[in-house]
Amino acid sequence: MKKKSLISLLLIIAMLVMSACGNGDDSSAKDGEKKESGGSEEATIEFWTMQLKPTFTDYIEGVIADFEKENPNIKVKWLDVPAADLSQKILTAVSSNSAPDVVNLNPTFASQLADLDALVNMDEAVAEEDQKKYVQGAWEANQINGTTFAIPWYLSTEVSLNNKSIYEEAGLDPEKDIPVTYEDAKKVAKTVKEETGKYGYFPSLDLSLVLQHMVKMGADLTNEDGTKAAFNSDAGLEAFEYFTELYQDDLIPREALTGDQRSTIDMYQAGQVATFMGSQFISQIKENAPDIYENTLPSTGITGESGKKTISVQNIVVPEQTESKEAAVKFALFLTNAENQLEFSKLTPILPSAVEALEDPYFTEAGEDAEPIDLVRIQSAAQLDESELLIKPMDNYDELRQAMYDAISEAMLGNMSPQEALDQAEAAWNEILSK
Amino acid sequence: MKTNKLTPYLFLLPGLIILGAFIFYPMLQAFWLSMTDYNMIADAEFVGTTNYENLFQDDLFWKTLTNTFIYLIGVVPALVIIPIFLAVLVNQKLKGIGFFRSAYYIPVVTSLVVAGIAWDWVYKENGLLNYVLDILNIISEPIHWLTSTQTAIFAVMVVTIWKGLGYYMIIYLAGLQSIPNDLYEAADIDGANWWQKVTRVTIPMLMPFVLIVTIMSSIAAMKVFEEIYIMTGGGPLHSSETLVFYIYTEAFDRLNMGYASAAGVVLFLITLVLSIINIKFMGKDNTA
Fold first, then answer.
1. From the CA of A406, how many Å to the nearest CA of chain B?
2. A88 to chain B: which residues are within 8 Å by CB?
3. d(CA A141, CA A122)
4. Does residue A234 have a pLDDT over 80?
5. How far apart are CA A2 and CA A16, in angstroms?
6. Angle (deg, nearest 10), helices A57-70 and A325-335
7. C-alpha–C-alpha distance, residues A412 and A244, integer Å
8. For tag attachment on chain B, is the N or C end more exposed, with fewer CB atoms within 10 Å?
9. Lowest mean pLDDT among A335-339, B7-11, B262-266
């Protein structure tokens, strides 16, 4: 009995010690260096990026050095985090009250944080004249419930990559037959399959891509005030039928339903796919599969009757927890200014979100010795004006996306008719939207 | 004399503190969170048993739980039985046996990301497995191992088994080497053949290790995650999604940390019950 009570006592002591550790003053997690910033006070800000080391180490360090030179009272500590870990790390940091001051996030994840009031409102933190320096669509891509939660950094628009050799092997003319619409893509898929046994078209369906395909095919996702699903329409049905037919006729790879974008790039690099939309991978293709790269012809992104094209935005956010808000916003504006963005764009095929940088001939003129990577950049920039963020940040986005993905999967796998699957998605969306 | 009684517990204290910090405290914290609507950012509000009620009404929870049990039933027997034979094989005093021991152990130390990608190539439509089955005339058209709702979970199981064999083999190997040689000598004198020695001496003497391996592999199967994350993403249509994957999605994609904690508590209870059953049924005669 005595032994038992002694063990219990020790356990209780251990638990108390632990609880004390867990509930310690959170402010101690931050280094004590931060004081009121912006003016002449000293500040050290922590800046997190998503997988930019080692390729862009020199560039980022250069930007930081320039910034520190201009603002000797502000020091920037840079931390690069693997892309797959970033959301977990930032969540953990925010929940333990030790968030970094400036972070590179995508709009979808950032909007979830913004929805929980964890990010600084940029409408208030950034002067109006500075706001106008960014591509309008990119600025608006970072808005949820009427507030702007981020500063846009770099952009890309949808550009298709086409393997000329497969087109020729299938008896198609790569200059003329490259698909521009979903209907074209279906024809190419049929011909390539019949003639070569390979896949003509590989549409990714993961993440928000099903929703994007539907919008491009002319479906409205919700009613105007976002309270009810509106995609159970002719256009929505057409989208479900389109992908179901392609999948069941084996005209697109089975991985469309399970693979992430890695499968598309893998199969394209292996010379098994003629066309896919993934121009952001062009540098990777150049490095991994130089032969395929040489044979790659970039073209305008595939779209439906709406003619809509989407842009992807990477942005910079400032968590609300920062103790150096002014310094953090100042650095975010410096990092995303026209000069720095132009320099960054020259290192990799991305588009700057700063209007002034986009006016550089680098984005408009292809030299005679232009490589596929240059053509991707020029094509991407050329369609920027007609591109927009098709899926705006919305509440419970992940659940909505998953419900649509599940429904289209049911149709593609033949468990339901496209109409039944669409009805299921509509019911699920209405339930989620009513929360 | 009092100090003498206290001394052993003082020795235990560092271990208890570590266990408290990394096991007991997170467990209690998870249990508390399962009663809240915590989203990692806003303060948690107590919601009682709402998360559990929602959980038990969620079809996807039941589906992932079923998948987890399918995983358990498929993986555990393989990981308990096959390594015994591997251990017996590599327990021979032969030249170069060290090479075989290492070879079986390599999958254990291979990163799951690398293993996942390599197996992805094996399973592809025009991958190694379909190629081999095709030239052996076993199949007429390729099987979509990872992209069919019928086969995806089983294809991933094979990877878990492949990766675990070496680890459990080492545990059995340690067990084999702890069996006193005189038992075999006595069996020899009694005229036992190889098979009789394996079934009457080796396997009974290994039972405590079988118990350990059963518990360890059951827990590993219950919490399988990386293979699925890398190879199928839980698809197609959640057919390979297990409970831990479901917990991860709810916690980190949807920020429903309270709800995910409730699912975590359920997983903990199931694992606890399974471990107790294992110990009751397998451990009673083998308290080595």
1. 6
2. 252
3. 13
4. yes
5. 21
6. 130
7. 4
8. N
9. B7-11
Mean pLDDT of chain A: 86
pLDDT of residue A7: 54
CA distance A168 to chain B (A): 22
Q: Is A203 left (phi over 0), alpha (psi -120 to 50) or beta?
A: beta
User: Do B9 and A10 lie within an 8 Å CB cutoff?
Assistant: yes
| Chain A: residues touching B (Cβ < 8 Å) | 2, 6-7, 10-11, 14-15, 17-19, 21-22, 87-88, 91-92, 94-95, 112-113, 116-118, 206, 253-255, 257-260, 272, 396, 398-399, 406, 409-410, 413, 415
* Record: contact A14-B125, CB cut-off 8 A: no
Would you say B138 and B209 are in contact if contact means Cβ atoms under 8 Å apart? no
H-state helical runs in B57-127 = 59-90, 97-109, 112-123
Instruction: Give residue A24's pLDDT.
Output: 38
For the stretch B180-192, pLDDT in tens is 989 989 999 998 8
Q: What is the pLDDT of residues A82-123, one digit of tens each?
A: 877 788 888 888 888 889 999 999 888 888 888 888 999 999
Query: What pTM was computed for the model?
Result: 0.82
Predicted pLDDT of residue B13: 93
Tokens found for residue A174: 């790569």
Q: What sign results for the dihedral spanned by CA atoms A192, A193, A199, A200?
A: positive
* Model pLDDT, residue A34: 44
pLDDT digits 0-9 by tens, B188-243: 999 888 888 888 888 889 998 998 899 899 989 998 998 898 888 887 889 999 99
Chain B environment of A91 (Cβ under 8 Å): 40-41, 252, 255
Interface test with B, best of A18, A92, A410 (most B CBs within 10 A): A18
